[in-house]
Design a protein that fits this description.
heterodimer; A: mainly alpha; elongated; B: mainly alpha
Chain lengths: 10, 215
């Protein structure tokens, strides 16, 4: 899973 | 995005706006811990390393810039602004926050999601944020009565992470791949550190009295 999905929170 | 996370981000933004209001309206930072502000600036700088590499949304990018910009502006103001820095309680704000930085960095080297530069700094920022409020809470206990804006600042700062916990619970039940155990556990510790402050804040609100933290 791409990092963008994993780290979409502030 | 869900209502809990949006409410959490807005509460976090509110805490920053209240702090900026206090400093610019009263031209004073009495009762505010410079060390907590420095730790938060470090939290945002190490968490948002992906600011220019991963684009998630306009909202995400704008909020990251606001958090980084405001935290650096507050640290600059408390250190350099002639009038504001005179009101800084330097002799009360003596928490050894460098130990917090060292301990969190060591923890991030041990517990992280992936052993990459970005992930280790991300875990570091998550652990550091959990303990970043400690110098501020210690300063509040030492400085006796707390002015309203400072009390509201700490309250919103604590409430935002509590809303994020609701967001993680919601996402756990609505998304199949969801697993944020580093952020969840750290967020629980962070919110727990505010427990006694929330109690005294509630008492002062209920009795309509001045917020007093026991020494």
């Amino acid at each position: 899973r791409s990092r963008i999905l994993e780290k979409d929170e502030l | 995005m869900n209502i809990f996370r949006l409410a959490g981000d807005m509460t976090h933004l509110m805490s920053i706006l209240v702090l900026l209001l206090k400093i610019y309206a009263t031209k004073s930072c009495s009762g505010i811990s410079l060390k907590t502000q420095e730790l938060y600036a470090l939290v945002f700088l190490t968490r948002y390393l992906d600011l220019f590499t991963d684009f998630i949304s306009v909202y995400n990018t704008v909020m990251k810039l606001v958090f980084i910009g405001s935290s650096l502006a507050i640290v600059w103001c408390m250190r350099m602004h002639r009038t504001v820095k005179r009101s800084y309680d330097g002799q009360l704000d003596t928490f050894r926050h460098y130990f917090l930085v060292a301990a969190c960095f060591l923890s991030a080297l041990i517990v992280h999601e992936k052993f990459t530069f970005q992930e280790i700094f991300w875990a570091f920022s998550i652990y550091l944020e959990a303990v970043a409020i400690l110098p501020q809470l210690v300063l509040l206990q030492r400085s006796g009565n707390v002015d309203n804006l400072t009390g509201q600042y700490v309250f919103f700062l604590g409430a935002y992470r509590a809303l994020y916990i609701l967001n993680w619970i919601y996402r756990y039940f609505t998304e199949q791949h969801f697993s944020r155990w580093i952020a969840c556990i750290s967020g629980l510790v962070q919110t727990a550190l505010y427990a006694d402050f929330f109690y005294y804040y509630f008492i002062s609100w209920k009795n309509n009295s001045k917020l007093q933290l026991p020494a």
